[in-house]
Amino acid sequence: MAYLSDEKISFGIVIVGGGPAGMAAAVAAYDAGERDILILERDNALGGILRQCIHNGFGLHRFGEELTGPEYAYKYERMVEERGIAYMLDTMVIGIDKERNLTAVNRDRGIFTIKCGAIILAMGCRERPRGALNIAGTRPAGIYTAGTAQKYVNMKGYMPGREVVILGSGDIGLIMARRMTLEGASVKAVCELMPYSGGLARNIEQCLNDFDIPLYLSTTVVEIHGKERVEAVTVAEVDERRRPKLETARTIPCDTLLLSCGLIPENELTKDAGIPLDAITNGAVVNGDRETDVEGIFACGNVLHVHDLVDYVSEEAVIAGTSAVRYIRGESGRDADIALKTDGRVRYTVPQRITSLKDTVVYFRVADVYKDAYLVVKRGEEVLYKRKKQKLAPGEMETVKLTEEMLKGDGGELRLSIEMA
Asked: What are 401's strand-pairing partners?
């Protein structure tokens, strides 16, 4: 817990969110030489969503070992403690302005304001609830987002139900299909609206195929049955416009429906600060330093765009943390203004623009499944990069490194595209 005096409060760098992104950004800023750092976390402990992710598979890229979510989080908690980085728990940030004044509230201090040299947004994301899905039927008990069910099972020791249908094949849904099975539930089906899964290939194999759990693609829930408790759901195939084909409808008896239908970056604070959002990612538009269009405010992790691996969250947070240090020292330095554009097959890129002529790793996702395709980077008609990919899928985030040599040249725009072989 940080100590704050009753006089005017100010910090060099304030980080909103104490999950893996926030902690990694704080550690990176400290290691870059900044000591005046504060993390604000609304929960009662650091760690974020990783605290409830007790499965393994974390840390292979970042630490070279396979960890559970709590183990991964604990590594960063220990780094924060060892460096003496200040943090405040049970503290909700309720406002940020363009002058980098941050307003927060907690039980001990009430409402207070912090003047920040730089702000790093690391608030993470939330799940898409039933209300956003327009599913017909009654509103009985037994409907949960997959993350809520995960918290009940892994942290509170409660079973949400025994006969389960899962809508959506995002990674949390796939992992909960396995988890519920291991806890003795019967997972009747995983239904996915799209013609492809939204999760990692390894999760489909390890969480569904290894347990003989069926995955129905191009299928959705069209009605929920039950008054006091879910009794069944009706599912149907969908056409190419994602409209249910009612002649394919069938009813699956169950007492629980888990929703794994996508994640939404927690960007209310971002919007309040007047920061433009990307229409595809729903996160801030940033440059290669992860600086937003509001000077001195940076963003990283799932609040910027939804990642598939927490290791990539940490890598991105390091960029934001070190860039924030350079900013408050007046060393940010911009020597370019290059917009990154896509062709539709590439859905989005992060960053969306590059303002420095240095090697830059660009993260991107594709819009569909493409096999034996080429990833191409062009400036006008000039091909700067071309590489064949055996398979590209929306559930797997991809990267491409744009070198300093590639970034030099006439024209303020580079285009990433997918070309079929």
From this structure: 361
Nearest Cα neighbor of 190 from 168, 207, 171, 205 is 168
**What does the pLDDT look like over 373-420, one tens digit per residue?**
999 999 999 999 999 999 999 989 999 999 999 998 777 899 999 999
Q: Which CATH architecture has domain 340-420?
A: Sandwich (2.60)
Segments of the chain assigned to CATH 3.50.50.60:
9-126+264-333, 129-261
What band does 3 get if pLDDT is binned at 50, 70 and 90?
very low
3-state SS assignment for residue 207: helix
pLDDT higher than 80, residue 292: yes
Sheet of 215-216: strand order equals 143-145, 256-259, 163-167, 186-191, 215-216
Read off the tokens for 298. 């940076």
Q: How far is CA 172 from the centre of its chain?
A: 12
Q: How far is CA 103 from the centre of its chain?
A: 24
DSSP H/E element including 77: helix 69-83
Residue the block writes with tokens 């220990």: 78
pLDDT average, residue stretch 150-159: 95
Check whether 194 has a pLDDT greater than 70: yes
Using a 10 angstrom Cβ sphere, with 0-12 exposed, 13-18 middle and 19 or more buried, the burial of residue 157 is exposed
